[in-house]
Amino acid sequence: MNQIVNIARKELNDALRNRWLLAISLLFAVLAVGIAWFGAAASGQVGFSSIPATVASLASLATFLIPLISLLMAYDAIVGEDENGTLLLLLTYPVSRGQILLGKFLGQGLVLAVATLLGFGSAGLAIGLLVADVDMTLLTWALGRFMLSSILLGLVFLGFAYLLSSQVAEKSRAAGLALGLWFLFVLVFDLALLGVLVVSEGKFNPELLPWLLLFNPTDVYRLINLSGFEASGSATGIMTLGGDFAGSGWILWGVFAVWVALPLLLAYVVFRRRIV
Amino acid sequence: MKAVQLQAVQQWYGNMQVLWDLNLELAEGEVLGLFGHNGAGKTTTMKLILGLLRAGSGTVRVLGSEPSHPDVREQLGYLPENVIFYPQLTGRETLYHFARLKHAARKQADDLLSQVGLDSAAERRVKTYSKGMRQRLGLAQALLGAPRLLLLDEPTVGLDPIATQDLYQLVDQLRQRGTSIILCSHVLPGVEPHIDRAAILTQGRMRAIGTLAELRRAADLPVRIRALGQGMSEFESQYRQHGGYTRRNLTHQGIEVSVRADKKLPVLREMLSQDGLTDIDIQQPSLEELYRFFMEKSPHDWEKPTLDSEEISSDSEKSSLNSELSSVDAPTGGVLV
Description:
By secondary structure, chain A is an all-alpha fold.
């Protein structure tokens, strides 16, 4: 346990040192405030519109951004240490591979969590203080759920990053694969699903489709954040398929938890087999 | 308890065999030089001892346990051949990080930094370090905790002559404290006085292992004697018919004679009784020469290792030497492999 903390501590220090933590927090804060005030600009309004609309817009944007940040932060976690020769060294220390992986997960996960809470939290605070008669309970609940699920989404892709990083021999290859993975989950998957819908011309069992969304962690994330609002009209595109899950939030959280654990577990399996 | 014990170890990378029947023992407080060309299997042997690789067959024991055991790793220091460390951390931060992982005190990290001469550079980022400075940081890192076994892979690469001497002095000090050390390298200049035994690996096989004296006897390379003085140019030995004897005149009234080790003293006596002798200089075969001998001796043996014994017994002098050698207590004694 102690060794996990020691590894995590270094990751945390690194993030403070290279100002990742600061940069991500600022980015999140600016984004959240911007969306809250100008999110409705398309419909000709400027200023805070509504909590569901704000959270929905935030979630759509975070779906792209958070996986990218996670992958960028962690793609070189293993292969980078290998290239620096420090992985070889670490493995001759009384540290197991599992401890190295968990330590990095803990450290970088904490960085993401702190940045999310700082960035989006401060934006929430600004909304709560500056907007007149906003429903504080709804804001706290919706934003809290958004922040928690954002952290989990970040953890999912940290796991994916470790998986790639444990598999490849060169840092540049890990970077390329990370980009590919990001593309797959945030763009290609939904497009492919829509394509299947169109091509099958309704012959595809419509009962099955919502369940297919669960195979994409970013869709699970969006489903979580779009459900529960009375005016569900904010769901657009492929998300309308997820309407069936509106009442089954616990299933979504459960699936999300599996998504956090699965890539990390796979990363461990691959890392254990890695020859240093 | 032996610090390191390798028995009949074979190792493969995929289909390629990289180690053949490797036997190696290291006593506590012993310093072993492990020499070989690139790809000879030095690093593979190191990795087996470090527990980074599992032996394909045979057994590896380190400090009495499995090499991957956490207790073993607590007592083990390793200087890798190439380590860049974390470029964004300072030297001190780097060493603190490794100290925490090895449960060593910060105080020790500070002391080690000054011991390896990085005091003034300790607050600079490692990315500004030269190769030699990184090497010293690596050395400091290897000494964290109280290692009972040290593995140093090419420790003198990038070090200037003074730093190299410092390193060897450190090796001597550590040996006196009972630390076992493996120095792994191409031939190291000036390493002879600091190692107890040398092991020579080529193509994944142990060609020779023993003290330098034992290796010299096994190789039976000629000793060079230079005798200076008026009248030495007329010197002729009664052993000139013996194998390995050569003689040449030097420019300044002197000669250089090469003789087999067993005729060294008789020839010396002859020289000493010669009139007009002013100086004598004896050159034993150096580690480099021994290394070259064992490297070049073997090419055709690699394919047919069984030929080894026949070849040696064809030379009666050698075979008697060989039996004498193998009677020296087996594992630590010098054995032609």
